[in-house]
Design brief:
disordered C terminus; 20% strand; TIM Barrel; binds S-adenosyl-L-homocysteine; alpha/beta; 14 helices; elongated; 402 residues; binds iron/sulfur cluster; DNA polymerase, domain 1
Length: 402
Amino acid sequence: MLCPLGRLSTPSARLRRSQAGSADCVQSKLLPGKEAVKLSSEPLIAPSHPIARLPGEWEACVVGWGEPAYRGRQIFDWIHRQGVLDPGEMTNLPKSLRQRLEDEGVGWPMQVVSVHESSDGTKKLLVAMPDGERVETVLLPQIDDAHVVTQCISSQVGCAMGCVFCASGVAGLKRQMTDAEIVAQVLLGRRQLTPDQRIRNVVFMGMGEPLHNYEAVARALVLLTHPAGIDLSKRRVTVSTSGLVRQIDRLGRDFHGQVQLAISLHAVRDADRSRIMPVNRKHGLEELTDALRRYPLSKRQRITIEYTLIEGVNDSIRDAAEMVELLRGIPVKVNLIPMNRISASELRAPSGGHVTRFQEELTRRGLSVFIRKTRGDDVAAACGQLAFHGESRRSATHRGSA
Ligand code: SAH
Ligand code: SF4
């Protein structure tokens, strides 16, 4: 019998399920998950790895092993609330069950390779996965209250979308990240905090296009916001996309508009946007803005518009005026990001004065606009841009702003 939460729709999902741990746990007598994951489009795919199981899935597993259901909830608590992934440390479980979890492969799906702390408190973690691929995740303490931390996470190794100003786009897609790898970034991030700090926001603004890895990201969103686990508020989890229209609709349906949506706009005319963001050739601005109008936002919520300012490309006063027209009627806030240089391109940010003039023009026309400060520059850290240093693509690092 298949896992009730695990209808498999794609060959890669089937592959992932076959790697998910012991077959008898995933395939034998499973109970329906108690949390009843209500994704309205399709059921969640099966977890790729034991640490991506939900409490109900753990209950089903342990019952299949002849243990009482509450043991499943205890395991979920250890992993997601307490951040303990070594079964040997799960002290309230019987020894035989701890051994079973070892055999199942419960443990970290990735390791921290290095941690670089910037003078502004930003911490960049380089993490390695078992196949040797590496991604980065960045912890950004709030400027006016360092106890509150935003974590920027990656969703793919590289990116297929090919945006010309972005190092991940230039590098291309190496592979998808699994649900477990996406969530483990936050579990590892929490271990870097001081006791008085906590992660309040998670943004999918690291490497990759999250909506091009929808199924893994959807399970990760359910896990990150699960009240028995990490328990982030859905509104404090931001999915940033270059504009994959069908998946924007799906995200809206599956999470009832509660997940915060950020759109990388970066140009306001189709010809300009298609030049710098190939995705626009498939889904033009009209299609994209229609999807934003459909996104089921609750009353006080707004969509974040990210706009990377590139000198001579998208930074004219006419661009500002047309942006206001393009976004008319959509509840938005605009984040201007002066472009961070990447070695593969001559493109660069306009001067600081010009960025301010662009902001003023938008504000004068009624938009609420923020300029994202570059953070963690001295450790080449932060979200938004991934730079590949040296000859090895494996040494990807974030630079940019958050
Ligand atoms: N793929 C998703 C999320 C990751 S990128 C997306 O594109 O939305 C996060 C943000 O950083 C995006 O707005 C992206 O366009 C921006 N970004 C990428 N490269 C950048 C660069 N060199 N300078 C400034 N912002 C950049
Ligand atoms: Fe991919 Fe986003 Fe970079 Fe575009 S900006 S290449 S979508 S990571």
